[in-house]
Amino acid sequence: MYPLIAIVGPTASGKSELGLYLAGSLSGEIINYDSVQIFRHLNIGAAKPSIEDRQRVPHHMIDIREPTEIFTAGDYQKEARLVLEEIRNRRKLPILVGGTGLYLRALTEGLFDGPARSVYWRNRLEMTAERKGRKYLHSVLKRLDRVAAIRIAENDKPKVIRALEVRLQTGIPLSQHLDEMPRRPITGFEVHAIGLNPPRDELYKRINERVNRMFQAGLVEEVRDLLANGIPPSAKPFEAIGYRHVITNIDSCIPPDETIRIIQRDTRRYAKRQMTWFRKQPEVTWFDGPGDNEEIKNKVHQFLKPLVTF
RNA sequence: GGACAGGUGGCCGAGCGGUUAAUGGCAGCAGACUGUAAAUCUGCCGCUCCUUGCGGGCUACGGAGGUUCGAAUCCUCCCCUGUCCA
Predict the structure, then answer these.
(1) CA–C1' span, A234 to B12, in Å?
(2) Which of A30, A152, A203, A306 is the most exposed, fewest CB within 10 Å of its CB?
């Protein structure tokens, strides 16, 4: 079994710093699992590692799509697994760093072997939702996939649509796919998950500061440039925290302080959601401090060292 | 000293006689989530008890009284804050 490190934790907990450090001390390469860093040109708001860091340590799964392209958890699974193979062939330690729990799960545990998204069905279902409402769409799901309908909230349009899409395309309910079809977990790798969980106060402080720094670094200018270069405001990664706020306020008279406040708030809420996801993640060894803390770095290193012989 | 305006749960702010422990927002907490996931969605958010129920008790709308079957909502006095006039 080849070792694979996964660093998990909320945004701004210092995952990147820890990843960099471990890559240095354990001869590793970094594989991003953040859904926004996938996209080129979104740098400041995505908190991408610096050019220097990326020259020092190889980074993968960063800047691999244009903002206008579509990228899904399925794509991630496929491409990241290839990267993993390459790193193993090079006899380096793969270190997963990021914050998108679904991507990490897709990579390690696999997705069910179902259909990718279908533009055709999406459009139809989207229109139905538009015309008749989410409630109605949910009632259709109740008819076609009772189990999924119970699991998915009436208002959760994206999940209702996905469930319907799977059912309509395959004839088999999503719930059945999920419950009965075998997934394809990653093989040949042994995952060691390191969790970073700084005290809440400290985390929130770090988040607030980080958002301030993003503005100082020119987040607004970055968004302006992207728009000027023809990337439409509707581009998927512009839905990300920070980007969507800047875009909606860019031509308004809302003061920057207010925009910053909202971004900080939404980032905090995002961090909470990440924690509820990662808490469920199996076999994580948690460390109660930020990843850029020397003591934490050492502890993690000591912990990992005997486990990652390769 | 006088004239207004106002004092509501951690904060802001509605309510202006009765399904009001009190809309909403902020702040916070917990959770769900296998194909655009930094997305999307759900619940809690005065205290407390249990047989966890559209359950019971207690405490709450500056303070003290009063009117009323019933008051955050009306009246009286007091305290405090803001603006204006002296």
Answers:
(1) 34
(2) A306
pLDDT in tens, A175-207: 999 988 778 899 999 999 999 999 999 999 999
Residue A253 scores a pLDDT above 80:
no
A100 touches strand B (CB under 7 A): yes
ipTM above 0.90, yes or no: yes
Provide the CA A272 to C1' B30 distance, Å, integer.
10
